[in-house]
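=== RUN LOG ===
request id: a7f3
mode: sequence -> structure
chains: 1
length: 70
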Amino acid sequence: MVLVDALGMAGAGLAMGVPLALWGRHFAASLITGLPVTGAVPMMAVALLAAYLPPRRAAHVDPMVALRYE
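=== RESULT ===
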């Protein structure tokens, strides 16, 4: 459930960010030469990793230990 929500947010961010980045790249290319092309796949991989690790770590905590901590 967490991964689906995170990937939905990452996908929405990419849908809005990639066109803006391409537009910005054309603008910046007139100012700076040799700009690298930004890929959507590495951004999605980082978003997936960021959404996967915290719930995985939380799943390994004993519920009684977590309740007693508070």
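=== NOTES ===
The mean pLDDT is 76.
Residues 2-69 form one domain.
=== END ===
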